[in-house]
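Look over this entry.
=====
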Amino acid sequence: MTNLVDTAIEAHGGMERFSRFSSLTARLHQGGILWSLKGKPTVLENCQVKVDLKQERVSHWPFSPMQNRSAFTPDRVTIETPSGDVVEELLHPRQSFDGYEMETHWSNSQVAYFAGYTMWTYLTSPFILKQPGVVSEEIENWHESGETWRRLRVTFPASIATHSAVQTFYFNADGILVRHDYEVDIQGKNAAARYLLEPVKAQGITLPSKMRIYPRNPDNTPMREPLIVSVDLSDFHFE
């Protein structure tokens, strides 16, 4: 059987093509219950996101109703004015979530940390599976919606900020990523299933234009309510 990591990367445009680019920018519209639970219903409802493809760095803007922007890295997050003045800083951001649950409110810099690592994980997948220290193992197939999906159990090193150390990636018969499971460690380790919908090609790279994230049941099936997060992406541009 073909190595699933290689199959998936080739299906999404190939590592050689992906490696030509250093960043990806997109327009982002977000919804779902998460943002109100965190006390930030509109902060990143409509914004731009820029993901560094060489290292884990992400920026979102504007942080509505201000025109401020974020600068995320795993160890430091800032919120900055359009002129570059730092108005909020969070060092060692993951530690700030200790004891947090699903309903615990976040600061803007905590939103920037969560949104930063999620979009870096989402927009670099499946290419992220070739990052140093990432270990992938193919596990038994999964049957859903009349299809059979191959699966990878993936373990991330501590150097990568992401939802949880162990995650599961699902690929359809064409090698396209269609589902992604994890536990959100920074909000009580709640189990989630992310669905990737309506894939598009941008400069030869296949990306989802919509994502829908639901709670995951103990039997690995998704709950269809509530919708935790919805993500609509457009205007992709690689540089």
Q: What stands out?
A: The longest helix spans residues 108-124. The chain has four helices and 13 strands.
